Amino acid sequence: MSNITQRDSFWNRVYELAKVDRDIIIVTEDMGAPSLDKFRTDLNDQFVNVGIAEQNGLLVASGLAMEGKCCFVYAIAPFVTLRALELIRVENAIMNIPLTIVGVGGGFGYDDSGPTHHLIEDIAIMRSMPNITINSISDAIMASAVADESVAMTSTNYIRLDRQLSPDIYKPGDDFSKGFAVVKPNADKYIIATGRMVQTALNASEKLAADGISLGVIDLFRIPVCIPELMNAIGGSKQLFSLEEHFLPGGMGSYLLEILNDEKTCIPLTRLGLSFEKGYCYTYGGRSKIHEYYEVDVDSVVTDIKKAMN
Fold first, then answer.
1. Are residues 146 and 201 located together in one domain of the fold?
2. pLDDT by residue (tens digit) across 197-215?
3. What is the pLDDT of residues 213-239, one digit of tens each?
4. Rounded (10°) angle between helices 197-210 and 298-309
């Protein structure tokens, strides 16, 4: 465990980069973080707070980007994306103005704030538009590495960060260029997960191993992914499972089905995620309780995988 959140790991690295490159600017929409306090204090002329005005924040950052600045737009994930969606469509997808859109609290990151603050549709929405890359971060080490990549990007980059501590999956210096990583190898069966659910997939894989069932785990953290490399990793598989903290229609599992179809590869894929039948969740009691409600907790995942394999 790094004992640092993805959010703080990301902004700590942006701070280091911004001290050298004075064209790096953060446009925040009334959002702070412990790691942003020193940025606001030491680099005050590179820090813009537009208040609770997500659409205006996108416009301000887009204007700065058109003048050659490297802009990061930051807010709670559902508001920096869905509330500002039409602006993102015009400024970024249509005009291809390069921004890094940083949303904190993807999935059920704001578990205690109800469905207005849950973000379980963003992958489907953001991947439906051109010129936008999605980075679904799974640990603090990846978050820091993606900060470096963001500065070099010439198109729009959407980063979904978790605000809660999570175990380390990677080591400093690991390669994230392919858009996915085989975090637990296997000969012919894999759980392909994204974001917070990668750790759930690893825990489920361990429980299944105790019952003599062997499954590997792949972290698919970038859309679009490097398809030839992904197909090389899963091409010999007999069975696949996708796992996401996201509604199933249009999500990461749907993206995988599209890839398998387009590559004319007939590997059975079972999608595990949030069903429309459950709708939006008003259940409280923490993230683990919400996962139980949607049946994406470790025990439910293990049960569903056993059913599918039988």
1. no
2. 999 999 999 999 999 999 9
3. 999 999 999 999 999 999 999 989 999
4. 60
CA-based nearest residue to 137, from 303, 269, 45, 4: 4
pLDDT of residue 29: 87
Length of the chain in terms of residues written: 310
CA 80 to chain centre: 14
Residue 49 is assigned to a structural domain of this protein: yes
In which domain, by residue range, is 208 found?
180-309
Cis bond leading into 228, ω under 30°? Answer: no
Same domain membership, residue 89 and residue 185: no
Contact 68, 27 (CB under 8 A): no
**Threshold 0.90, pTM exceeds:** yes
| 20 and 81 belong to one structural domain | yes
Instruction: For the beta carbon of residue 305, count every other beta carbon within 10 angstroms.
Output: 24
The phi, psi pair for 57, rounded to 5°, reads -60, -40
